[in-house]
Amino acid sequence: MAATMRVRVVGSSASVPRPGRACSCHLIRTREANILLDIGTGALANLREVMDYPALDAIVISHMHADHFIDLIPLRYGLKYGPLLRDEPMPLWLPPGGEAQLRALAATFASEGPHDFLDEVFEIREYDPKGEVYVGNLTLSFAKTIHYVDAYAIRVERDGASVCYSSDTAPCDAVVELARGCNLFLCEAALGLAQEEGSVRGHLSAVEAGELAQRAGARRLVLTHYGTEFAPGELEDAARTVYRGPCAAADDGTELTV
Predict the structure, then answer these.
(1) One-letter-per-residue 3-state SS of the chain
(2) Which terminus has fewer CB within 10 Å in the chain: N or C?
(3) Residues 42-98: pLDDT tens digits?
(4) Number of domains in the chain
(5) In terms of pTM, does the model score above 0.90?
(6) In a domain, 1, yes or no
(7) Residue 12 located in a structural domain
(8) Does residue 126 form part of some domain?
(9) Which residue range forms the structural domain that includes residue 149?
(10) What is the CATH number for 21?
């Protein structure tokens, strides 16, 4: 099957960015559409290296933790005052309840008021996790993860090709089902080689990411959303103890085709 989607890892770090790296952000491109899955700390600067940000067709936010959405703020300034502008507001898809949270944040510093500050450049919507979102020729579907706040894994499909992005999650059957048979599984490995203690969990180790990929029958696994405590090769080796397909650790600038 010829490649139908290109995926660029714009930001691959966990909540504390690795030196010279950005937090969660993944760009999916086809000839007809360009979308971002999350836009975390430092992601906009990396994005500008590969495309003019006004050309984005949509941004989809998995959950309202700062390392997944905070660069919406500098993006807003770019769309309002930057050298390249849009004729229409940019579609911004937030999780349920996300609009109120984003407007509350904007209200703390927006002299124009939270509605003018955001609505001048964004067309804000909240997706229904039980439904689908369509952007150009891309179809997006969702599954609620196990995290400290409501968070949603995202599957993107086009012409039989599929990319699944885990968002932030502990081991989760719903994420396995969403990733079932996907061509590319972008899965968080925030714990690295460590374990999360206690009954309340929200992240995966590299081994657990491999287990989810193996259970889902994902054709390729790319580990993302990790810190500096462990080398990428260590994460890959750990995931390969349980996952039998191709596996690699993402880095900012990694390019993939599906």
Answers:
(1) CCCCCEEEEEECECCCCCCCCCECEEEEECCCCEEEECCCCCHHHHHCCCCCHHHCCEEECCCCCHHHHCCHHHHHHHHHHCCCCCCCCEEEEECCCHHHHHHHHHHCCCCCCHHHHHHCCEEEEECCCCCCEEECCEEEEEEECCCCCCCEEEEEEECCEEEEECCCCCCCHHHHHHCCCCCEEEEECCCECCCCCCCCCCCCEHHHHHHHHHHHCCCCEEEECECCCCCHHHHHHHHHCCCCCCEEECCCCCEEEC
(2) N
(3) 999 999 999 999 999 999 999 999 999 999 999 999 999 988 788 899 999 999 999
(4) 1
(5) yes
(6) no
(7) yes
(8) yes
(9) 6-257
(10) 3.60.15.10
